[in-house]
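Homework help board

Subject: predicted structure for assignment chain

Our instructor gave us this sequence and asked us to write out the predicted structure in token form, then describe one feature. I got the tokens but I'm not sure how to describe them. Can anyone check?
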Amino acid sequence: MMVLITGGSGSGKSAYAEELISRISGGRRKYYLATMQVFDGETRARIERHRRQRSGKGFLTIERPVAVSGVLREIRGGAVLLECMSNLAANEMFSADPPRSAGETAESILGDVAELAGELEVFVIVTNHVFDDGILYDASTMEYCKALGSINERLAEMADRVVEVVAGIPLVLKGEERICGS
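My token output:
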């Protein structure tokens, strides 16, 4: 089962994803596939906040900022929470010089996700909704938004369930509601 969880910054999507995977993991070992890289004090603080949030919940954390399918040997048979797609997209796009195109980034990530989804019985992916602010950004940021939008659309197609979290409330957009209650 693949579940895509989306929402805005600070919406409660991470806490919801952790609670959900704990409920649906069925006794499988739970892996937290962390994609955020430390660039500054703000990202370091966010990483520490997420570590505290999942402390004591039985997750084995694997730090993997790019090429996420490379962890398959470590996680076979487990339940995986990938946190988060927006970081992964930025890492994949901007780790190259010059940056990769939106299309290249999306295809690479979607290939990795398909490989993981084919091997996992429980796969929860958290992504950000970054498209509603109405601001026109510089060309590279707009290319990133294009990549993430394409990735999110394709993930929603692939997923068995899609949930948007708004102000801590999970709203089921696709799939059965029974797994998504608080």
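Reply (TA_rk): Your tokens look well-formed. For the description, you could write something like this. The first strand starts at residue 2 and ends at 7. That's the kind of observation they're looking for.
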